[in-house]
Amino acid sequence: VKANLNGTLLPVEDARLPAQDHGVLYGDGLFETLRVYGGRFFRLSAHLERLRLGAAQIALQLPWTDGVLIAALEATGAANGFGDGVLRLTVTRGAGPALPVLDGCGPPNYLITARGLNPQAGSPVSACFAGRHPQASSPAIKSISYQPFVLARAEARQRGFDEALLTVDDTVVESSTGNLFAVIGGRLITPPLDSGCLAGITRAAVLEIAESALGSKGKPLSVEERTGSVRKRDLLRADEVFLTNSVSGIQPVVRLEDHTYRMAPGALTGLLQRLYRELVARETAG
Amino acid sequence: VKANLNGTLLPVEDARLPAQDHGVLYGDGLFETLRVYGGRFFRLSAHLERLRLGAAQIALQLPWTDGVLIAALEATGAANGFGDGVLRLTVTRGAGPALPVLDGCGPPNYLITARGLNPQAGSPVSACFAGRHPQASSPAIKSISYQPFVLARAEARQRGFDEALLTVDDTVVESSTGNLFAVIGGRLITPPLDSGCLAGITRAAVLEIAESALGSKGKPLSVEERTGSVRKRDLLRADEVFLTNSVSGIQPVVRLEDHTYRMAPGALTGLLQRLYRELVARETAG
Question: What is the C-alpha to C-alpha distance for residues B62 and B43, in angstroms, rounded to an integer?
Fold first, then answer.
């Protein structure tokens, strides 16, 4: 079986994508699956149009004309002796920095892979309901199918913000790169794991150290994992908001949409930052 | 910058993953981002535990002991002169057939990439709300971040079914590999594009040909894209149900959960299959 990588035909076993390609690191790419009938593509132009629509939506500039892609598809079909078969055209963001960003990525790569027809294609199938839409992935899974987060963050950047807070209806689940906490009336709140947020390592560490912290009234901080997660309006009237992840630790949010918090870091966020630094120092001591 | 691919240290530019790896084709893999402080990992065991929990959830057998992964992480940190920095451990499903399946894939690959610290890490950030949870990707985007669909289909197979119908609450959006149609009382219905389904090329072709088809009463078939999409119970009392995609064309559903349809293909499904074959033959004629 022959594949086509950026115009070069080669045995599919030898086709490799750079590990720095964000298609590999973040699932940041698109594909089209094309059916070939007697050496001819069915609705090739509709597939290429959908590819270009998708590329525009994810701000991916495709450097290839339709003519280039069609020639590559035809060459790959011919190299595999199609006939009848299936070609998949995959385009990826290209190599970039080891961060979920769009800037500094590229050029994109394209890859065409081929397969024969399954003799059962089109025959009757049985089906079941999948309990939830699979796009709502499990919080325990830190998947490389990360494109939705990449795009949410890119949209935030485009709007002049650093981070995106991911919402479902009017509740907030997490940020595009970490978990979310708020301090409201001396209580620390965070969306529970069953909200669909990631089971963050730093989130767990913050919940640990929060128990030893003192709230604004000098009493031990009360920690609450909000059932049904945290509402947008809770965050906008919060005293303090911060984000957590393994790389940045505790990140104060200074501004949320057009609301600016009085202090960033606020008193409690600053205290938790210090306690977190101390925890890290203790656990990573030589 | 040095990367580590399955135990081999090499310049990151030279690290490449096979195009047949389902991590590349379907975003089917996991990752962990680890912060290194003065040459020591913070909560490495918690990261590895989350990786193993995630692997178990996606039925990915990791062939490496913690000792192997820890040694590889330490070697990669040392090769990059850490100090303080960030390592990312990526594990992928491994090479497999060009289909969204788990069977026949592997062995898994692991890749460790390294980066320095962003000097702004931990400093205050601005944030905005992202209009919808980004896991609900746009129907126009056929993303390689495909793992949720792979897993839904694998779950269906495990339950003894061929396909999974993806639901949101009590409505059905699409199948794990295509669009969904039902015939109810002589009308053809399908979830509308704003339900979150893919804008399928075959879906569009079926909507075209349905206009020339005749319903059970000999009158032109009425086609309806159901607002708010199609409910589970609509499907269970439908006369006919079928799935569409570019590879298989029109696939009759013979059984849905414990309900078996009277005929598969039903009369109208069979008619549409014939009209679709004729359309394909016309458009791909030499």
Answer: 20
Give the 3-state secondary structure of residue B149. Answer: helix
For residue A249, give the nearest of A192, A194, A195, A209 by alpha carbon: A209
Alpha-carbon span B91 to A219, nearest angstrom? 44
Instruction: Give the pair of three-digit tokens for residue A237.
Output: 């009237």
Interface contact B162, partner A, CB < 8 A: yes
Q: What are phi and psi of B139, to 5 degrees?
A: -65, -20
Chain B residue at shortest CA distance from A205: B43
Token pair listed for A163: 């981070």
Per CB-CB distance under 8 Å, the chain B contacts of A47 are 201, 246
> Could A248 and B86 be called an inter-chain contact, meaning their C-beta atoms sit closer than 8 Å?
no
d(CA B118, CA B270): 60
pLDDT tens-digit series, residues A71-120? 999 999 999 998 899 999 999 999 999 999 999 999 999 999 999 998 88
> CA of A227, closest CA in chain B: separation in Å?
18
Chain B nearest-CA residue for A60:
B141
**Spatial distance between the Cα atoms of B108 and B23, rounded to a whole number of angstroms:** 9
Q: Which of residues 8-47 of A touch B (CB under 8 A)?
A: 12-13, 15-20, 23-35, 37-38, 40-43, 46-47
Give the count of beta carbons closer than 10 Å to the beta carbon of residue A160.
9
* CB pair distance less than 8 Å for B131 and A167: yes
Residue A67 above 90 pLDDT? yes
Tell me the ipTM for this assembly: 0.93
Which pLDDT tens digit goes with each residue over A122-135?
A: 889 999 988 655 55
User: What token pair was written down for A282?
Assistant: 């203790």
> Residues A212-249: pLDDT tens digits?
877 666 677 777 776 556 899 999 999 999 999 999 99
Contact A132 B168 (CB under 8 A): yes
Kindly indicate the confidence band of residue B222, based on its pLDDT and cuts at 50, 70 and 90: confident
Helix, strand and coil percent figures for chain A, each rounded to 5: 30, 30, 40
- Residue A166 phi/psi, 5-degree rounding, is -90, 125
pLDDT tens digit string along B26-78?
999 999 999 999 999 999 999 999 999 999 999 999 999 999 999 999 999 99
Residues B236 and B170: beta-carbon distance below 8 Å: no
